[in-house]
Design goal:
A: alpha/beta, six-stranded antiparallel β-sheet, six-stranded parallel β-sheet, B: about 130 residues, 7 helices, globular
């Protein structure tokens, strides 16, 4: 018999009972569908360091498996487990603003230092919460580091409740709450020779930048890495010199800034949408790993096209957000 | 009778290569379906990861493997699509893609026939007849 901790309560499993059955028997409100490990509606995450039974991770992405995600409907627990629903942000951590500056006319960099060590993968996102309780999700644009700092690229919207607050009121030294890192859009160890295609629009660059640094600096990724960063006009692009420098220092990294609107300098930028330019250049994506971040329509459409052009669904990592 | 049928099905599943064969087939099969102009509009806007998982369940069943869903599930799952005009011609197109997938994987015509025959048993439920 094992004990399942969920929602601050402990539940004992019956012999040969799945984790889902245990939770439902105790009238816990959890989503589920097929009860057969197929539909993934009941997806949960185990917070323990002990790996969950591998059979309960059937069909999940490698990144989800690594983060101890599992399907409770096909999980017979071998140990006590502490489990949460995928996006439960019940834990808020304390941080302090240590830097803030403009990356472009409408994007600000915000750097936060965590009061305690934190675990995350470059490319994951956290929820940031200000004093007024306004909460927004932002991707982490850096790799884990000894000073426990997190960097975010914040697009300043004219009437954005959170982003205007960042632009107008946030000062260095101010405290801020943030959630545990979430999301499956991050670098996976192994297959270091696999070619990577990363496509981002606007501040969709933030997670991709973290992923690329993680691949190059921490994992010495040897396969080709192609980044396409797009925006309607050139002011929406940033980090250009940084990325050009990275391409000079790493022969396997290639950077293509793309501008879809009129009047762009075509000696500096590719003219067109980043996703279309990338998919035209690489029409055969068999064996590639693909990362997509940015506007939901672009992400959904590109995910489908990348799959139709040969990428396996398990190798497509996407993070859609409203920009 | 059902016992004999089950034995025959298990053999088919093994002959095809079990779960590994399903995994290889689902990637090719779903790609063919999404590229097929006759039927791909039924898949607009769906969550691709969840849809691929459903395709895998369907292929497992058609391969004679363990089936986890009933005729009622099939009926309910496709009811909206029937309202959108899903009919026999679309079902035929799916079977055609299934056969083409297996043929691409080097499966013999005889086994393809057996898989198609199992898939055919879902026709009435899928089309809400």
């Amino acid at each position: 018999m094992t004990r399942i901790k969920f929602d601050d309560q402990f539940f004992e499993t019956e012999p040969s009972e799945t984790v889902l059955q245990t939770l439902l028997r105790h009238n816990m409100q959890v989503p589920y569908g097929c009860r057969a490990g197929v539909c993934q509606s009941c997806l949960m995450r185990c917070l323990d360091e002990t790996p969950v039974p591998a059979t309960s991770q059937m069909g999940l992405k490698a990144s989800q498996q690594k983060e101890n995600y599992f399907l409770p409907c096909i999980c017979l627990s071998e140990n006590d487990m502490s489990v949460i629903l995928p996006h439960a942000d019940d834990v808020w951590l304390d941080g302090q603003v240590v830097d803030k500056y403009a990356l472009s006319s409408n994007v600000m960099l915000l750097k936060i230092q965590s009061k305690e060590p934190l675990a995350f993968f470059a490319g994951q996102f956290v929820n940031l919460r200000n004093k007024a309780g306004v909460t927004r999700s932002y991707s982490i644009a850096t790799i884990p580091n000894a000073s426990h700092t997190l960097i975010f690229h914040i697009r300043i919207l004219p009437h954005g409740q959170f982003s205007r607050w960042v632009a107008d009121e946030v000062a260095i030294g101010m405290s801020l709450n943030f959630s545990q890192a979430q999301g499956s859009c991050h670098y996976i160890e192994g297959k270091s020779e696999q070619p990577l295609l990363l496509i981002g629009t606007g501040t969709g660059l933030a997670p991709l930048y973290g992923i690329i640094r993680d691949a190059l600096e921490n994992h010495h990724h040897s396969g080709e890495i192609h980044l396409f960063h797009g925006s309607r006009d050139a002011t929406g692009l940033y980090f250009e010199s940084k990325l050009h420098d990275m391409a000079k220092n790493h022969t396997n990294f290639h950077y293509t800034p793309c501008v879809s609107g009129e009047n762009s300098d075509q000696t500096i930028y590719m003219k067109g949408r980043a996703n279309q330019i990338a998919l035209e250049k690489f029409s055969q994506l068999n064996g590639w790993r693909v990362y997509l971040c940015g506007q939901p329509d672009m992400v959904l459409q590109t995910k489908k096209m990348a799959y139709l052009q040969g990428a396996s669904l398990k190798d497509i990592y996407a993070d859609a957000f409203l920009s | 009778m059902s016992e004999i049928l089950n034995t025959a099905n298990a053999t088919l599943f093994e002959q095809l290569g079990g779960e590994g064969a399903v995994n290889a087939a689902v990637d090719i099969f779903y790609r063919k379906v999404l590229a097929d102009q006759r039927i791909n509009h039924f898949f607009d806007g769906v969550d691709m990861d969840k849809q691929a998982a459903k395709q895998k369940a369907f292929l497992t069943m058609a391969f004679g493997g363990p089936a986890n869903y009933s005729g009622k599930d099939m009926r309910e799952g496709h009811a909206k699509l029937v309202q959108m005009g899903l009919n026999d011609s679309h079902f035929d197109a799916v079977i055609e893609n299934l056969a083409a997938t297996l043929s691409e994987l080097g499966v013999s015509a005889e086994l393809i026939g057996q898989v198609a025959a199992i898939a055919q048993t879902t026709r009435a439920d899928v089309l809400g007849k």
